[in-house]
């Protein structure tokens, strides 16, 4: 069974920084695009940043220049470095991945695997 596990959330003051991690585990063959999404109370889930297997990145306009997405393919892990945090960044952050794996001897692909989420609260 494959899964994504996020960590690194917490309470931080405005202007502060946090680093989120997303670790994939299981009989993974390949991880394609990985992304971070967030959902604030009463709002829809939105894309924050994504990174391809080759390292190409994409960011929401609201986080450009403040957040950096990266990945370590040797550890099947993606990161989201969040700097200059604002109150409006408060949300539950979810990791998403398109990955290929084996279930037993059967090849499978899950294009929309989600983690359980980690809460980020920006408040003084």
- C-alpha end-to-end distance: 40 Å
* Structural class by secondary-structure content: mainly beta
Enumerate the spans where pLDDT stays under 50 for 5 or more consecutive residues: none
The total strand number stands at: 11
Number of helices: 0
Strand content range: over 45%
Q: Tell me about the largest β-sheet.
A: 7 strands, mixed
Using only C-alpha atoms, the radius of gyration works out to 15 Å
**Shape category:** elongated
Mean pLDDT metric? 97
Helical amount? under 10%
Reading the helices and strands in chain order gives EEEEEEEEEEE
Topology at a glance:
Elements: E1 3-7, E2 10-12, E3 18-25, E4 28-39, E5 46-51, E6 57-59, E7 67-72, E8 77-82, E9 91-103, E10 106-114, E11 118-122
Parallel strand pairs: 2-11
Antiparallel strand pairs: 1-3, 3-8, 4-5, 4-9, 5-6, 7-8, 9-10, 9-11
Observed structural traits:
seven-stranded mixed sheet; four-stranded antiparallel sheet; mainly beta; 61% strand; 124 residues
Written account of the structure:
- By secondary structure, the protein is an all-beta fold.
- It has strands spanning 3-7, 10-12, 18-25, 28-39, 46-51, 57-59, 67-72, 77-82, 91-103, 106-114, 118-122.
- The strands form 2 sheets. Strands 2, 4, 5, 6, 9, 10 and 11 form a 7-stranded mixed β-sheet that branches. The protein has a 4-stranded antiparallel β-sheet with strand order 1-3-8-7, with no helix packed on it.
- Strand 9 (91-103) and strand 10 (106-114) form a beta hairpin.
- The radius of gyration is 15 Å and the shape is elongated.
- 31% of the residues are buried.
């Amino acid at each position: 069974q494959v899964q994504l596990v996020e960590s690194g959330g917490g309470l931080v003051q405005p202007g502060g920084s946090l680093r989120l991690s997303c670790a994939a585990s299981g009989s993974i063959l390949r991880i394609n695009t990985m992304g971070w999404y967030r959902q604030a109370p009463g709002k829809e889930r939105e894309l924050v940043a994504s990174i391809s297997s080759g390292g190409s990145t994409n960011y929401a306009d609201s986080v450009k220049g403040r957040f950096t997405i990266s990945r370590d393919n040797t550890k099947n892990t993606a990161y989201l470095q969040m700097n200059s945090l604002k109150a409006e960044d408060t949300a539950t952050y979810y990791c998403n991945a398109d990955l290929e794996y084996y279930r037993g001897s059967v090849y499978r692909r899950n294009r929309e695997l989600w983690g359980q989420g980690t809460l980020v609260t920006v408040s003084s």
